[in-house]
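Hey, I was hoping to borrow your eyes for a little while. There's a protein on my desk that I can't quite get my head around. The fold is given in discrete form, as structure tokens running alongside the sequence. I'd be grateful if you could look everything over and explain what you see. Here's the protein in full, and shout if anything looks odd to you:
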Amino acid sequence: MIDRWTHKAGGSWLRTVNDDITSADRWELRGESDYKLTDRSFLFGSLRYEDDRFTDFSYQATAAAGYGYHIIATEQTKLDGRIGAGLRRTELRLTGETQEDAILRGAVNYEHKLTDTTLIYERFLVESGSENTYLQNQLGIEVKISDKFALGLDYAVRHNTDVLPGTEETDQVFTANLVYGF
């Protein structure tokens, strides 16, 4: 039965300092477990926690569960879709007020191996509730340099619909990354 389960965990940290001025300070932890129903369909449970010093939210934490399907599942190309429901808890930075709401969560993940060592990907996530809709799209490329390490370039667009007046709703980040896999 253990082969029915797949577990993924990840994290990221972004900090930008130029001339002693910090312009980005964000970290995120995420995890997902999938339970295989058939070769193409699965149930999932996901957790995500984000702390970003440059948004209206001190943190955003979500937990969701739902159904997923492998639309394309070849050795070279993968396209997965997920839809589910869950809960989100946020803390507003200015007031310290905590908000909780039910969310619908959707995700589409695409990967294509250009070569044995080069992968392109696009990952789209939406978490929508009555208080806010969070959208994130990542487009990137990874090049393996060993069995455990890869170099990556990633362009991410993140959007929150409910922000304070004068705050940007959309954040764009381009990063060069060292990726560790185990």
In short: The beta strands are 5-18, 21-36, 41-52, 57-73, 77-92, 98-113, 118-129, 133-144, 149-160, 170-180. The longest strand covers residues 57-73. The domain at 2-180 is CATH 2.40.160.40 (Porin). The chain has a mean pLDDT of 91.
